[in-house]
Structure formats: C-alpha cells, structure tokens
Amino acid sequence: MKEAQNNTVIDVEKLLLLNVKVFKAYLEANKTFRDAPQAVHEYTVETATDSAFNFKDKLCRFRLFLKISALDHEKNQLGMDAEYGIEFHFHIENLNDYLIHKEGNEVQVDNILVTNLCAISYSTARGIILERMHGTYFDGVILPIVDAGKILHEDKKKPIAN
Question: What φ, ψ does residue 49 adopt, rounded to 5°?
Fold first, then answer.
C-alpha cells in the first residue's frame, strides 16, 4: 500500500457517487416577513461537514449541512431561513492510495480526497437546493461557487448576493 502525499492527484474516474439522501429540509419565512415581505439584500450560508470511511469496502459517507439566512441592507436578519442536511455515499476504487498510516493502527485519509468529495457533494447540493427552493420565498437563490477546502477548514459563514 503506498503512502498518500499531500500533492496526490485524484483520479476522479475512480470515484463513484452511489446515492444522495436529503435528511433535513427546512424552510421558513416567519409571520413578520410573510405579512410584510422586504427586499433581500444578501444571504449568508453557513456550512458544516461530517465524513466517515469504511476502509474495507472502500466507502465514504459525506454529510453536508447548510444554513441559509436572508439579510437586509443593514445585515439584519429578515426572518427567512433554510436548513439542509444532505448525505452522499461514495465508492472510492483506489481508497488505499489516499491512506496515510500513522503510529500504531491510526490511519488518516489524505485531505485532497476529502476536499474532492466535499467539492462533488457541495456542487450536487447546489443543484438540489436550487430546485427545492423553486416556488418558495427563496426562489432563485443560487448558492455560491466556493473553494471546498475553505468549507472544510476555514470560516463557515459566507455571504451571497441576491
């Protein structure tokens, strides 16, 4: 088994997205907003992730959590929020190529693989959420294109213009 390196190149043809499950879908425009809708100036998107690997079967479960909130010109909450939890299941044919063996029995997955799984998951979630927002107060909201590495490692709150 070869040691994975931080500069490992991903062979995307060896990644298979097996299924996608939405386990949380929540939209709310509160009564105040519904009674007197205001112009949305921007939305914020907060993200979180969770992943688990089955090394024996070369599988990964990747969960993506998103919270979207509408803001006015002064960046005040408008009472319009959405939350999504989406689970992605992958088969990684060459998973062993991305394993880093530490002391003892500890095994770590190379960040480049996790970052690519996050990018695929987030891109897929963008389309799912765009479709599910149709016909709601969030109609037309498109999540921004982001750096998947930042979703995993940096500030989780991102503004998106309306």
Answer: -135, 160
The structure tokens listed for 44 are 């914020």
Cut 0.70: pTM above it? yes
CA 43-41-158 angle, 5° bins: 30
CB 56 within 8 A of CB 24: no
Q: Is residue 117 part of a domain?
A: yes
3 occurs within a structural domain: no
Q: CA 147 from chain center: how many Å?
A: 11
pLDDT of 57:
98
What is the amino acid identity at position 83? E
- Beta strand pairing call for 77-92 and 59-71: antiparallel
Across all residues in the chain, what is the average pLDDT?
89
Band of the pLDDT at 18, cuts 50, 70, 90?
very high
pLDDT above 70: residue 156:
no
Angle made by CA atoms 149, 155, 157, in degrees to the nearest 5: 110
Backbone CA torsion sign across 85, 88, 89, 91: negative
Q: Write the CATH number for 70.
A: 3.10.420.10
